[in-house]
Amino acid sequence: MRRFSISDIEGLIGIKAHTIRAWETRYNLVPPKRTVTNIRFYDEEDLKMLLNIVALNENGYKISKIAKMSLKQISDLVTQLKTDWNNDQVQVLNLADATLKYDEENFSKILSGCIKEMGLIKTMDVVLFPFMKRVGMLWQTGTIDPSHEHFASNLIRDQIIVCIDKVKKPHKEEPKRFLLFLPEAEMHETGLLFTRYLLKKCGHDTLYLGQEIPYNDIKKVIGSYQPDYAFIVLTSLNLGKDVNKIIEKVMDCLDVPLLVAGSLISEFDILVKDHLVPLKNVCDMVEFLEEI
């Protein structure tokens, strides 16, 4: 059984360590276990309980009231919340719980329920992008394993591809041609696949190349495909402050406008350049793609 420090728990459930300690001190909620050398830790059952407490607390239940509930009462109330697909905070927590357990059936059920109820665009905006940002940070800090991140990413990828296949591309008088790819050192396809979905929904044409395309290959494809726009997504935390250098390298290979999306675009200052369009969130992406 996995063991978690209080800082691990803080990252996993999004609640500050001092708040968790206050719940323990005032209400005896989820007291940590201790090693033989007296080091505090939480196990998987503790994490599940804390996830349930946070889900109830974020939906109007006071901690003082939760502390008086039985385990069954807490579990029953959370079970009811889990079927509220529009409750994005609860679904982010549910996805985190399913990821830690490698629970493919439950993860897929949560994700498909959200998409069915809210549609893919809203699900990406309020559930999946916040969830993936949290998972990425936990991976970088070693709180979760790389396998957890790959598990979640691949299931999300599968669902987006299903949504792409279901879209009936509308007729457009003058569709634009988009080259979609990830530059070297960038492997996270989720945002790029979502862009492909949006473009198909808007009636535009796409050439999808996927992960880690060498810079020399970009020049060749540009000459052959002759797109109207190129589109990349930057999310890998290891790129960090080098994000402007990456953008510059990509632009050196292009003679068309470059659209750039991804979490790094909203976290770092992007240098203003001609023919560069930073898209900081889902709303920006949808607006731009629908207007051109």
From TrEMBL:
Keywords associated with the record: DNA-binding, Repressor, Transcription, Transcription regulation
Q: What is the name listed in the Swiss-Prot or TrEMBL entry for this protein?
A: B12 binding protein
Q: Which domain of life is it from?
A: Bacteria
Q: Which SUPFAM superfamilies match?
A: Cobalamin (vitamin B12)-binding domain, Putative DNA-binding domain
Pfam families for this protein = B12-binding_2, MerR_1
Coiled-coil-forming residues are: none
GO MF term (any one):
DNA-binding transcription factor activity
Could you tell me which residue ranges the HTH merR-type domain spans? Answer: 3-72
Say yes or no: keyword Transferase present.
no
Q: Report the transmembrane regions from the record.
A: none
